[in-house]
């Protein structure tokens, strides 16, 4: 059966300097490479799985990706139930429907982006702990080990295949609930870059910018440590070089798709330990209140947040310039840091993402958005302290980016 994931509590209460102790709890296993998804059944069989539940969405059913995984699992002689109605920003209600299917299952498979993998994780908690997913908001709020999770990402973005986190939308409260605990780190991640070949440019851009945000926020948070630094820096390098070819010729540039999926995965591991920053604090209310896709929200917030944070840790932002390929020889640290921020502004200019105004965000929206951003769990981990007034100014600046064409 599955190798248990170490149940080490998540702890972001300390700045991980050289005097502090940090823990590292890796996932069960990773299978990575072109064609890996077709081996899902074979791999589950090796792990002794008899009954599985697949969680996915209609889009993946239509393009045949879900069918490929279903065929692989059934050919391995494993009983399979399918929930294929996940929606963007999966909700509490979706988690309830998935949980109903989990009775007697050995494993839950999340196939898709965060909107499929996250509710699979959330249902895995409720299946063994009971109650509602609302009871488990926060870190380490569940007692019993969740059902083992297998994650198969179909976009290079969220990194949920290798994080102990899920984000579930509570539509009643217009709030995105963060749920964390090492028990929901997937026991097995099957990463197949081929599953991303048919993704349109707009989704490749949004998800890819989310992955870049994870890597940059993990590299510049107050909770960095040497292992997360190694992973985050390599994630930034890979994504910085692969995102444009993946967005603009992702149907044929297989190397770019491979590097994006690897970068997203490494970024996920990095922020599992180092946490994130205020771009995510700003992105979640934009998603919950205005349905701005998570990746679009981060794409728009990231450069503005980097510019705000830059002075708090210029050496790190100077490194980022180097990861993007800027020759920083002869520059001061501050000049190099500014060059790192400029790289991300320029990247955003090239990305096919819509501006905030397209989602109905106006000056009147900013007060409530800033209130909710203040509640973001990653705010204390951000390189620079942030007040409500800061958030209002940051949102205002984000609104000026990328005019609708
Ligand atoms: Fe994210």
Automatic annotation (TrEMBL):
Tagged with keyword Nucleus: no
CDD domains: Fe-ADH
Domain Fe-containing alcohol dehydrogenase-like C-terminal: 204-398
InterPro entries: ADH_Fe/GldA, ADH_Fe_C, ADH_Fe_CS, Alcohol_dehydrogenase_Fe
Pfam families: ADH_Fe_C, Fe-ADH
Annotated ranges, domain Alcohol dehydrogenase iron-type/glycerol dehydrogenase GldA: 29-193
Keywords associated with the record: NAD, Oxidoreductase
Gene3D superfamilies xrefs: 3.40.50.1970, Dehydroquinate synthase-like - alpha domain
Family to which the UniProt record says this protein belongs: Belongs to the iron-containing alcohol dehydrogenase family.
Protein name listed in UniProt: Iron-containing alcohol dehydrogenase
């Amino acid at each position: 059966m599955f190798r248990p994931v170490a149940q080490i509590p998540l702890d972001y209460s300390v700045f991980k300097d050289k005097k502090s102790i940090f823990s590292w709890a890796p996932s069960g296993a990773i299978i990575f490479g072109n064609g890996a998804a077709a081996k899902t059944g074979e791999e589950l069989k090796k792990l002794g799985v008899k009954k599985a539940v697949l969680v996915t969405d209609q889009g993946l059913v239509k393009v045949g990706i879900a069918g490929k995984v279903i065929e692989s699992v059934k050919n391995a002689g494993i009983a399979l139930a399918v929930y294929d109605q996940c929606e963007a920003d999966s909700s509490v209600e979706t988690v309830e429907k998935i949980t109903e299917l989990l009775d007697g299952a050995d494993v839950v498979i999340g196939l898709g982006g965060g909107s499929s993998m996250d509710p699979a994780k959330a249902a895995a908690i409720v299946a063994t702990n009971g109650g509602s997913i609302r009871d488990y908001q926060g870190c380490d709020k569940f007692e019993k080990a969740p059902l083992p999770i297998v994650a198969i990402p179909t976009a290079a973005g969220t990194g949920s295949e290798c994080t102990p986190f899920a984000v579930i939308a509570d539509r009643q409260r217009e709030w995105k609930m963060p749920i964390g605990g090492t028990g929901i780190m997937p026991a097995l991640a099957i990463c197949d870059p081929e599953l991303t070949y048919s993704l349109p440019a707009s989704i490749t851009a949004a998800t890819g910018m989310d992955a870049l945000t994870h890597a940059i926020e993990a590299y510049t948070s107050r909770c960095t440590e040497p292992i997360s630094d190694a992973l985050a820096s390599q994630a930034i390098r890979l994504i910085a070089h692969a995102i444009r070819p993946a967005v603009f010729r992702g149907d044929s540039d297989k190397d770019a798709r491979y590097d994006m999926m690897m970068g997203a995965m490494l970024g996920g591991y990095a922020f599992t330990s180092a946490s994130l920053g205020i771009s995510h604090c700003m992105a979640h209310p934009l998603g919950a209140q205005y349905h701005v896709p998570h990746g679009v929200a981060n794409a728009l917030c990231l450069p503005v947040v980097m510019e705000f944070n830059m002075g708090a840790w210029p050496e790190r932002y100077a490194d980022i310039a180097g990861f993007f390929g800027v020759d920083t020889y002869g520059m001061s640290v501050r000049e190099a840091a500014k060059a790192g921020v400029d790289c991300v502004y320029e990247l955003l200019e090239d990305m096919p993402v819509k501006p905030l105004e397209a989602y109905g965000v106006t000056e009147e929206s900013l007060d409530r958005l800033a209130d909710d951003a203040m509640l973001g769990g990653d705010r204390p981990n951000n390189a620079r302290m942030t007040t409500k007034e800061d958030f209002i100014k940051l949102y205002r600046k984000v609104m000026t980016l990328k005019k609708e064409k």
